[in-house]
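G., the chain you wanted modeled:
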Amino acid sequence: MFTKGSKLYSIVTGTCPKCQKESMYEDKNPLHLTKVLKMNDHCSHCGLKYLIEPSFFYGAMYVSYGLNVAVGIAAFIVSFVFFQTTIEQSFIAIVIALIILFPFVLRLSRNLYINMFISYDPKAGQK
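Predicted structure as C-alpha cells:
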C-alpha cells in the first residue's frame, strides 16, 4: 500500500505524482519555513509541470482547511478526553497543535490536491 506507484506514497513523500522519482519541492524539509511552499517548476524526470494552470494550488486551501479541522478535533479529543483538561486548556492545546503542524499541513494539502488530478504513470520519464 505504501509502495512506489501508490497515491499514498506520492502524498506522504511529496514526490512527483506522475513518475514519483523526484521531490516537488526545492527543499525537502518542511521546517525551513521560508522555503515551505517553494516548488520546482516541473519534474526533471518526466517533465510534469506542477503548476497545471495559474493559481492551481488555491484549491489546496480547501484541503488545508479540512486537514486543520481534523487536527483541531484530534487535539481536542486527546487533551479533553484522555488528559481530562478544562475547555480553556483544550483550546490552548488546539492552538499549539495547529501552530506546530502548520508547515506539515501546508505541504500535505498541496500533495493531496495535485494527486487528485494526476495519476502515477510507470512509463513516465523513461527514454
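The first helix runs from residue 7 to 13.

Shout if anything looks off.
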